[in-house]
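quick one before i forget lol
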Amino acid sequence: MAESDYPVLKELETKLKLQWVDVDDVMATQRAIIQVDPAGANLELPRGRRGPKGDPGPAISFQGIITPDSELPSGLNPSNAGQAWINTSTKDLIIWNGDRWFRINDFAGVDADLQQISQWFAQIAADSRLAQEAAARAEFAAEETIQQVTGDFATRNYVDAAAENIKWVKRNLATGEDLNTVVTPGLYAARDYSTALSILNRPDVSNAVDRSAVEVIESDGVAVQQTWYPMGLASKTDMPVMRRRRDNGGNWTAWERINAFTPAKETYIMQSISAAKWEKRALVQDENLDDITKAGVYYAPSYTVANSLVNNPVQLSRSAIDRAKIEVAVTGRNISQIWSTIPAATKAAETVERHRDSTGAWSEWAAYGGSGSRDEDEPATSFETLGLASHGMEGEYVGTRSLLQALSGEESPVWAWWAPAPTSELEMPTHDGSGQTCHPSVLYFPDTWGGWKYWMAHTPYPNFNENHEDPNIAVSDDGINWQVPNGVANPLDDGQGRPNYHNSDTHLAMWGDTMVLTWRTVDRPNGGQNIIYARTSKNGVSWTPKVEVLKVPLGTNESTFVSQSLVKMPTGWRLYGIRSNYAPNRLGYYETSVETLPKTSDWGAAKDCDLGAIPAGRDPWHSEVQRLSADDWAAIISDGKRGSTGVDGDIFLARSTDGVTWDVSPMPLTPRNNGVINSLYKTGFVVSGTGTDRTLDLWVSGYRTDKRTWAIYRTLAEYRGAR
């Protein structure tokens, strides 16, 4: 082959840029920039032979978040290959490849190349697929450049955009930039408060002006939608997500609040994934929405296309047929589609949703967050039985877990269980008459015990007034409607309104046919002595006098042992709780072999559980631990800001085979519901079923920061991560 026959080759050889990507240094093309002579644009490039297939790489198993790198575990070996963490400070993804650490810089947050997040994982999953896909992309870019482009140069970005028919920009906003001119689809960052404050035509509501990400989408080259995501400090709450639209006449709507969130440790994951939009394309005329089953965002670019789509929501609402964005979330075989119109500025936007279950059956379209249409004789779902509705943040949780599942080789990871955000507080009887209460602990008896199926211990806490914080007992047959059992006089221990004295952290357990109630007394008038007390009952009405279970001397690290769970072992007992005199706090336990109800002198020294890495700036605060069988343990742990008493708390599911080493979900078990419950707290739970059929019935306590009120809410966690 003479060089004169291919005049472009020598130039091409010097202009093809290769980068090294992969854990074992297999070279593959990540991006190619090819400069060509227009005269040679129609020449065909010779093709070299394809190299040998590489060995499969490890599946990626997301382990959680760390700050700083020193929190990465030591002592990993080849069996740990594929375990990955995200550093919340550097935003890097850090993967153990069996021999050494491999780092992907700027993986999470607005600094990441958000379009390539899912591509990275797909490429890392197998060397062979990485090499083949990268080679195919380089070959495709070269062929498109040589055969179709008649300019001086082309980039892979050009080829990708041409193939997807969508241009996606990622850049920082400039000081004083006008959002009315930011109309190209993409993600734009206001990297600090001063920049955000200077932006023209930005949202101007409380807590919205801060470091922010602005997502821009368009449907037909003219109609535009902007979504403003504030990303402030973790101490800020109720940060509003704002949205506005421009119609094809160039008219902008006012900014409208669509959601709110607290920027806790999960925020950077959610925003990165939300912006990535794994699949991103325009729908074509007559396309069937039943076939749109890959997670991502899709566009109906015009009324004509929207109206032609098979299985569109026209039967629910004629006004929903307009230019629209269709977001698709996938959790195993279950799929959710959310259809949001992008109408003229003079029309109201409309959002509807539908879902496909694991059998492949689609629900009818329904108003977003509503219950939808249902035949009178059709049974309600488990969520509807509890009166639960959908919420915007749940879509983020679904999407996050969907991506994590795609990256993981686990069949039933702990983060695959989640519950809808709590919506309505339970009406609880309290001895002080306020109805405000917390610290629920619940036992369930299918065939009743003492005449009732559900028994709950809880402590009233009206407007944070600890003078009324004393153990109460309530019963129910449905877990929703509660009353005081006949013959019981609440509270079961009375601090008698003494200042700075309270009885908190109630817990119920069964010891054969005997119910055991424990609680924690803090007697500040007497030096703040911390004591765990217990009372027992054979029928729930007659209770034995209180006895001391644990009293730790003042001035020791154990003097602040809180939120106890008394667990009966095959031999003896364990007493779990949060050791809150550390930074970060620890989940620990005492152990004894005595078969009677234990007392302080029976316990051995306190031991620590292994919870893995604790997120920076957070502390475990309250917990409830249950031994379900010999090698099956479950716990729900609430956290809070470091050094606080559960402020801005979330709750997390944890599993263990021995009650010592725990696998803690990196994702909260349920989102907060700002405006209803701003901070999640101690949670009682009842476990039903096994494997992926397991459910967790939750009684979540929490408070509203604006009203300083406490309440208990019920929600249901189900497995949402089947592969």
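fyi Residues 121 and 598 are 51 Å apart (CA to CA).
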